[in-house]
């Protein structure tokens, strides 16, 4: 499915998948920190910091070239 997409759409789909994975990992880190019982006062903190965390992670992926060399490892023979 991903192979049939053009270059920009392919990168866009990888960025969308990265956003989902980053969000889930950030939420999982919060759950681990509070023993899977997230207090309500910290949920607002999660909502505030989630966009910042996503922007920082995606910027670091682009800066260090994670999206340039990813195509070698995404296909099956």
Q: Return residue spans where pLDDT drops below 50 for at least 5 consecutive residues.
A: none
Helix-strand topology string? HH
> Count of DSSP helices?
2
How does the overall form come out from the CA principal axes? elongated
What percent of residues adopt helix (DSSP H or I)?
55-70%
Main features:
mainly alpha; 77 residues; elongated; 66% helix; 2 helices
Topology:
Blueprint: H1 7-33, H2 40-63
Helix pairs in contact: 1-2
Describe the 3D structure.
This protein has 77 residues and is mainly α. Helices cover 66% and strands 0% of the residues. α1 (7-33) runs antiparallel to α2. The chain starts with 6 loop residues before the first helix and ends in a 14-residue tail after the last helix.
